[in-house]
Amino acid sequence: MSPLARIPFTRAEQDPTGSCVRDGERDLGNARFAADVRRLAQRLGRVGVAPGDTVAVMLPNCAEIVTTMFAAWYRGSALTPVNAALTDDEARYQLQDSAAAVLVGDERARALAASVGIAWLDAASIHADEADGTATEPDDGPVATAGDFALIIYTSGTTGRPKGVLLDHANLDAMSGSLVEHFSLTAADTSLLVLPLFHANGLIAGTLAPLRAGGDVVVAPRFSPDTFWDLVESHRPTYFSAVPTIYAVLDARTEREVDTSSLRFLVCGAAPMPAELIVRFEERFGVPVVEGYGLSESSVASNINPLDGPRKPGTVGIALPGQEVAVVSPSGEQLPPGTRGEVVIRGANVMRGYLGRPEETAKVVRDGWLHTGDVGTIDEDGYLSIVDRIKDLIIRGGENIYPKEIEECLYAHPAVLEAAVVGRPDPVLGEVPVAYVAPRPGRVVTAEELRAHCTAHLARYKVPEDFEVRTALPKNSVGKLVKGLLREPSRV
Fold first, then answer.
1. Most exposed among 25, 113, 372, 430, judged by the fewest C-beta atoms under 10 Å?
2. Statement: residue 297 has pLDDT above 80
3. Which residue ranges does the record annotate as region Disordered (predicted)?
4. Looking at the structure, do residues 215 and 324 belong to the same domain, yes or no?
5. What dihedral angle (degrees, nearest 10) is formed by the CA atoms of 252, 256, 262, 263?
6. Residue 425 belongs to some domain of the structure
């Protein structure tokens, strides 16, 4: 049996009245949460969900997503969370590709379920007040095993159709245990869920790891810089995980003094965070920011800067317990410290594969190593620095240019909030870099200023051919900049 599937029930036995999941005004204690998980699992069974099936959930961030995850595991089924911001066609694609047997959600979900011929369960009834005292049917408890699929997480799909990443209970057991060990998580910890729960980060790092450690989870509504610090001050979390854009916005938009005394640490992931922003945020708010790195294919995290040890802003830290991270040449040979190459990952956290795509799985998982497609270097102390994506490399007249280096330069300009550099075809040079910038609130910056700034800090061939200043840059639903849209201006 999977120990993860038993978490709600182990907690209820050990501390029935302890807090488990908080969501707005709701505080679901351990006993209540476990009872609601069991009740939902039995409802899933009544609509035909069996071990090995897939349960889909489509809701904005709320406690019901967490309950549905554990209820699916109770049945020995996998969960696929569907981003509620998807169009109907995009949602139907995920439901059909994952072969979902049921969709848990609202009235919109009811219509989508009907359109693809699957069952629907009303999410509004999962934690209904009257359910608290309702007896559950006798059963034998959770049936999921270590080898059963636990999550099917769909990639962001910035190019082509999204792929379903298959993570089993053994993957999640290794990953959550690694995070508990690295951050020394205990029952005293509270995670504030900032990132969306249709993503592996929110479900595993933000939810599973603290619940496994005996701590609790606060589900935050959609991120707003105007109300975010109010949530921190009222719920007193010990950590949260966010993307660089959120940290940049909080730094730019926070005008009052805030109480951060409950926070032990903050995590940044999903995209590289400028070292200058990390240092500035730490100094201003008095909380260590540890940058990490990982993929859905590696169950979310593989490297994170340590809390008890040197933190190196600009790196994504050391390999997490139980994982090996290396940098290899195109022929697969491991490279010495300081040498650029492709980042590869090995460990029990590496995915089982892409759902229904054996050829694509074989391309990225070779000899037990997950090939990430990221370019990086590892220093003498084992700290990984991500240089860029292999596919984002710009070759200008034979010179290799990594956009991240130019972006770091742009972020050092005091008026820049967001920056993205992409390649543009050129009839003479083959490709040239082009920069897109969004200014900080209340600041104005011109293309001429940005060109002068880059010229003063970069080799001439790295200076972008053009600079475009916009009010905001395109992002996906996780808050990560989407460069693909910048490469196709007609779509922006």
1. 25
2. yes
3. 1-23
4. yes
5. 10
6. yes
Nearest to 2 by CA among 139, 187, 150, 182: 150
pLDDT of residue 136: 67
Is the pTM higher than 0.70? The answer reads yes
Same domain, 226 and 375: yes
Q: Which long-range contacts (CB under 8 A, 24 or more apart) does 307-312 make?
A: 307/182, 307/183, 307/184, 307/264, 307/265, 308/184, 310/381, 312/383
Domain boundary among 362, 389, 416: 389
With CA atoms as reference, report the closest residue to 46 among 126, 121, 116: 121
- CATH number, domain of 459, equals 3.30.300.30
Domain that holds residue 327: 207-389
Check the CA dihedral 99-110-204-130 and report its sign: negative
pLDDT digits (tens, 9 = 90+) for 468-478: 999 999 987 66
Closest CA relative to residue 229, chosen from 264, 199, 257? 257
**Within a domain: 407:** yes
Q: Residue 64 is inside which H or E element, if any?
A: helix 63-74
Q: What would the pLDDT profile of 254-296 be if each residue is shown by its tens digit? A: 999 999 999 999 999 877 777 888 889 999 999 999 999 999 9
* Cβ–Cβ < 8 Å for 309, 286: no
Does residue 308 surpass a pLDDT of 90? no
Angle (CA) 150-389-462 rounded to 5° is 160
Going from the C-alpha of 320 to that of each of 152, 352, 369, the distances in angstroms are 23, 19, 15
Q: Which residues pair with 154 in a beta bridge?
A: 164
List, for residues 202-220, the tens digit of each pLDDT value: 999 999 999 999 999 999 9
